[in-house]
Amino acid sequence: MRAGVSTASLFERQNNEEALSLLNGLGIGVAEVFFTSFSEYGREFGELAAKGKGGLCVHSMHVLNTQFEPQLFASHPRVRADAFGWLEKALAGGRALGAAFYTFHGTARIKRAARSGERDDLTALGKNLRLISEFCAVRGIRLCLENVEWALYNRPGVFRAMTGECPELLGVLDIKQARLSCRPYSMYLKEMAGRIAHVHVSDVDERGRICLPGRGIFDFPDLIRRLADTGFDGPLLIEVYKNDFSRPEELKESCDYLSELVDKYG
């Protein structure tokens, strides 16, 4: 295991090409790139951003979900084709940066019935996911479904159903999103065990506000021990919001905190 940072933590503070250079300058070794606009999809932008990353390893890519991911599941041929066109561009940008994994949200559960899952056709969703996974694999990137309270994997059981139809699927464990779903992260961890590509980590204070790892009350030693027990050896990627810390240097301090715990408990 090793600690790193998602550029989502610097959203609206630094553009991605600047954020990668900043993280490299801070001595952070691994990162996820969070593409945030259509202008950032494509090989050209990926190559531009790669110029400033130095020795930083870009482990994974992420996109602003609602821009095209839900439309990959659309029944309308034109809508679906356009969505796959944007997916191809996004993947090209990710590959130019060296990303091997794609943090994926999938459908957006906007309506109440969608949140409950009462109308889910998990078999059909899994088959669609297999097509998306195969599309990504041909382009050199593994698809990783993240537990997200308002998206496809919003409750335990969904991931197991998806892997039944899409055997190559990997997972991303998000601690914050597990909390928002009002379920213990251990339920998602158990379901994804052996298939976790990386983990999105954040801390929470006594008032329930998100903060950097090491600044709150979350039990990171327990998380690291549980991950180690599953054989996980991937990155712990810090993903917080821009107002959850003051100085960029605090990201490095938080990475160092996690690294010490990994050495001790991992």
Automatic annotation (TrEMBL):
<protein>
    <submittedName>
        <fullName>Sugar phosphate isomerase/epimerase</fullName>
    </submittedName>
</protein>
<dbReference type="Pfam" id="PF01261">
    <property type="entry name" value="AP_endonuc_2"/>
</dbReference>
<keyword id="KW-0413">Isomerase</keyword>
<feature type="domain" description="Xylose isomerase-like TIM barrel">
    <location>
        <begin position="29"/>
        <end position="260"/>
    </location>
</feature>
<dbReference type="InterPro" id="IPR013022">
    <property type="entry name" value="Xyl_isomerase-like_TIM-brl"/>
</dbReference>
<dbReference type="GO" id="GO:0016853">
    <property type="term" value="F:isomerase activity"/>
</dbReference>
<dbReference type="InterPro" id="IPR050312">
    <property type="entry name" value="IolE/XylAMocC-like"/>
</dbReference>
<dbReference type="InterPro" id="IPR036237">
    <property type="entry name" value="Xyl_isomerase-like_sf"/>
</dbReference>
